[in-house]
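Please decode residue identities from the backbone states below.
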């Protein structure tokens, strides 16, 4: 039995410096004290906050909502636009470079 060695090319995925990340926070608490997400009587608070490229501000606004409303349960959603780069010297890298030159 022979052994085979597979060498996988080094692709990279990095944040896209030309696009903004988003940070959003949504309150999960209810206005009438029903604290179970599945409780049909729960009246959702509805508070939310979104910001571009500033997670600290999202955290600050979330804490302010805790102080104002006494609500402590949230959902945080963040997006991070990325760029995938094929290995240097690969056929795909050459094809993408030609495509990008043609569209600029
Ligand atoms: Zn709330």
């Amino acid at each position: 039995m022979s052994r085979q060695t597979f060498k996988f090319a080094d692709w990279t995925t990095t944040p896209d410096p030309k696009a903004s990340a988003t940070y959003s926070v949504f309150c999960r608490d209810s206005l009438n004290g029903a604290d179970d997400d599945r409780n049909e009587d729960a009246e959702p608070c509805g508070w939310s906050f979104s910001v571009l490229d500033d997670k600290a501000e999202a955290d600050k606004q979330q804490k302010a909502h805790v102080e104002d409303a006494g609500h402590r349960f949230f959902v945080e959603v963040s997006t991070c636009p990325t760029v995938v780069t094929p290995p240097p010297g690969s056929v795909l890298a050459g094809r993408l470079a030609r495509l990008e030159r043609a569209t600029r």
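Observation: The pocket of zinc ion is lined by residues 27, 29, 45, 47, 65, 69, 71 (CB under 6 Å).
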